Amino acid sequence: MSEKELRRLLGYGVAELKGGQLTAAKRYLQRALVYGGNSGAMADVWFYLSEAESDKDKKHDALEEALAYNSTHPRARRSLAILKGTLNADEIINADHVIAPSAKERKTNADRFECPNCGGMMSFSPDGQTLVCDYCAVGSAQENEEAKEQDFFSAMATLRGHSKPNAHKIFHCKGCGAEFLLAPDDISETCAYCASPHVVNHGETRDLLDPDAIIPHQFSQHRAIKILVDWVLTNKFTPQGTVLPPRGFYVPVWTFDVGGSISYSGERQAENPKQDGFGFSTKEAVITVQGESSIFVDDLIIPAAKKYERFLHNLIKNYNLAKTKSYKAHYLSNWSAETYEIELSTAALEARSRAYKAEKKKLKRSLFNLRNLRTSSANMAITSYKLLLLPVWITNYPYENEDYLVLINGQNAEVLGELPKAFKSEKKKNGFMGWLDDVF
Prior knowledge:
The protein is α+β, with helices and mostly antiparallel strands. It has helices at 2-18, 22-35, 39-52, 56-69, 74-84, 152-157, 221-235, 309-315, 344-366, 429-439; strands spanning 122-124, 130-133, 139-141, 150-151, 166-172, 179-181, 188-190, 197-199, 205-208, 213-214, 247-269, 286-303, 325-326, 336-338, 371-376, 380-399, 402-409, 415-417.
């Protein structure tokens, strides 16, 4: 009965609000709070109370109350974002009429890091915080800031979530098709994937979102070679031909925080079912159970590039995201960074789907006594995101006329490599040493 009365008073309050009668609207809505109801209805009441308030602080408090009942309430989230200044009301797009990006030429942001001592080019060293001159070895420490996550709701409400607003120069490898962000002064480039050299055409630009965060490379190519050699020794085989030294670069991934709740319903057997006069159980032998399970997933990673995606899925699981830094252009000085192919909106759908499937499995295990379990993700939502660059070393080795891929985690040195389909332990030392000569 209270739920029905709440809905009735809510309807009256909304009607008064639309008619501009704010005092009458607040009176109806405040009475509705007394009756109470489910979290969805209570969230609606508090949202409309915020619409009836002219005082900024009271409006803020009402919106916070609405989100306390339903953290994914879209209108409350939008109003609170506008109130806090994280969302500009003028930038909100009409979903039925998204303006196409301009085809005009756009300037790219280009940074060159020059040595204060000799004016030479400075490269980012793999210690996480230093630019070093390529000529005189003078170092320049850089400040490290903790990476900040972006509000997903605000991004999707504007063109930022549906387009790529910042122009960048792109290097497209004609050998394997991979694409990388281009350093501003490079006139030639070597593909990190297939090692083919190219002369760069600086006329090509692409609209891309700037990265939000990065995990810097933690070791040099010399150590990457040693890691590769140790991995081959451990697996007791010899590559049959020239092996190029590992090439360091960054791969892009999206990370998402997922919050809200999953509602569920099911049936269970009553402990003491009622019986009719003939000793048979009545319909009350089965009880319908309903409820909600809260969900929070932190930094769910979705690969943003498709090349070698099945290998990257396994490699990216073991990065320590607590070491993430706020992205600065100097991190890419003398390092390649692959461009993302999967856009924010597409990756978000994948993240939400994965989080929902994982939570459903947990619910089925914890609610094993319920039959006909049904779940709904209506109250689940992406809360925040970031575009993150992860450090990787890559190379290939030949074996029996086939090439096999080896990836090395540029943060913790973990190796993910393809092993030959069939090989024998080789004991000929000179054969192995020949491979070492090729690598070094």
